[in-house]
Each structure stands twice: as structure tokens, then as C-alpha cells.
């Protein structure tokens, strides 16, 4: 006796059914005796692609393109913000308060990764891009400060703020996930609504 199984959840169905009574999915007219195991494996693969991270089809060119653009944006915003917060530094004989300058490259990574990850199709690619931008911003921040603000200020930056690579990596990954998971639809919907004039 032949049986029919749902392609999505693997539930046994009536041979003439067009929709699964268990999950409501539309089913093909495929009849088989040994389909349950295959369907459950396929369902697990589909669930890992939709809910988890899929490393099988990564587009490294896309990651690199968004990563380089994000790195440039993060470094430019970091230098601009560092110049804008210069006045918040206060020093005395007993202590040095860095003011808001320590936030400079953090703000740069948040803005760059947040905006770019919202335009990436794949969540895994966005997270790798965020990791890339955070890591390289952390590694290059001291050199960029030295290049644009002089060695003396770079020495001060390294002494009182230090290397923020670990913080920037964590922020890059978290913001990439949030931007891709929650901002993607809102930004794209906003662009479509503006285009349509709604």
C-alpha cells in the first residue's frame, strides 16, 4: 500500500490530499513508502538555512566588497568623530579624562556595519562582514590616528584609550546581525514606499 508524506514536516497524509493537515504546506503529488526519513533530513536542512547560519553558499566577493566599503566608512567616521570630540578631553596632573573620544571608532563601526548589513541578502555574510570591519578597524585605528592627527596624539590615544579591537569585533558582529535581521525589511520597505510616493 502506498503512502504520501508532507515535503515540509514529514507527516503521513491521505494520498489525494493537496495540503498537509499537520503544517498546511502544499504538497506535490509524490507517492512513496520510504519518504519519511528523506523528508525529515530535508526539513532539517531547510530549517538550518532559514533559522540558522548557512556556510555552504557564501559569496566571498560580496563579503569583501561590503567589508572594504564598511572599513573605509568606519575609519572616516572614526576620524571625524575624534576631531569633533577633541574638546571633551580634560587632563590634569592627577588624571586624564578621554571624554567621548574613546567612542570615535565604535560609532564608526556601528554606523558603517549597521547600514551595510541591512543591504546584504544573507545573514551569515553580514555577520562575517561585521567581523571583518570590526577587526580591521581595531587593527588600523592607531595608524589612522597617527596619519591624520600626528604621532603625538596617536601616542596619547594608545596610552589612554588603547586598542579596541575586541570591542569593535563584538560590536561589528552584533550590529551586523541586528542590521540584517531587523533593519533590512524596514529600509527596503521605506525605499519602495518613497519610490512609489506612498
Structural key phrases:
elongated; 4% strand; two-stranded antiparallel sheet; single chain; 198 residues; 2 domains
Structural commentary:
The chain has 198 residues and is mainly alpha-helical. The chain folds into two domains: 4-51, no CATH class; 60-196, no CATH class. The chain contains six helices and four strands; from the N terminus they run E-E-H-H-E-E-H-H-H-H. The strands form two sheets. Strands 1-2 form a two-stranded antiparallel ribbon. The protein has a two-stranded antiparallel sheet with strand order 3-4. Helix 2 packs parallel to helix 4 and helix 4 (123-149) crosses helix 5 (151-160). The longest helix is centred in the C-terminal third of the chain and has 32 residues, at 165-196. The protein starts with a strand and ends with a helix. The chain crosses the membrane at residues 66-87, 99-119, 126-149, 161-183. Keywords: Membrane, Transmembrane, Transmembrane helix. InterPro entries: Zinc_ribbon_dom (IPR026870).
Amino acid at each position: 500500500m502506498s503512502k504520501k508524506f508532507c515535503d515540509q514536516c514529514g507527516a503521513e497524509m491521505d494520498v489525494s490530499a493537496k495540503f498537509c493537515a499537520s503544517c498546511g504546506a502544499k504538497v506535490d503529488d509524490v507517492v512513496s513508502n520510504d519518504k519519511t526519513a528523506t523528508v525529515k533530513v530535508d526539513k532539517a536542512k531547510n530549517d538550518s538555512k532559514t533559522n540558522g547560519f548557512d556556510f555552504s553558499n557564501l559569496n566571498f566577493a560580496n563579503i569583501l566588497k561590503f567589508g572594504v566599503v564598511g572599513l573605509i566608512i568606519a575609519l572616516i567616521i572614526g576620524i571625524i568623530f575624534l576631531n569633533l570630540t577633541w574638546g571633551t578631553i580634560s587632563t590634569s596632573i592627577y588624571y586624564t579624562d578621554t571624554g567621548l573620544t574613546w567612542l570615535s571608532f565604535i560609532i564608526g563601526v556601528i554606523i558603517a556595519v549597521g547600514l551595510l548589513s541591512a543591504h546584504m541578502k544573507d545573514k551569515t555574510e553580514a555577520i562575517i562582514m561585521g567581523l571583518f570591519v570590526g577587526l580591521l578597524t581595531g587593527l588600523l585605528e592607531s595608524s589612522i590616528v597617527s596619519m591624520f592627527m600626528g604621532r603625538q596624539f596617536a601616542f596619547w590615544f594608545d596610552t589612554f584609550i588603547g586598542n579596541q579591537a575586541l570591542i569593535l569585533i563584538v560590536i561589528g558582529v552584533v550590529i551586523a546581525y541586528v542590521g540584517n535581521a531587523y533593519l533590512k525589511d524596514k529600509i527596503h520597505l521605506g525605499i519602495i514606499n518613497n519610490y512609489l510616493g506612498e
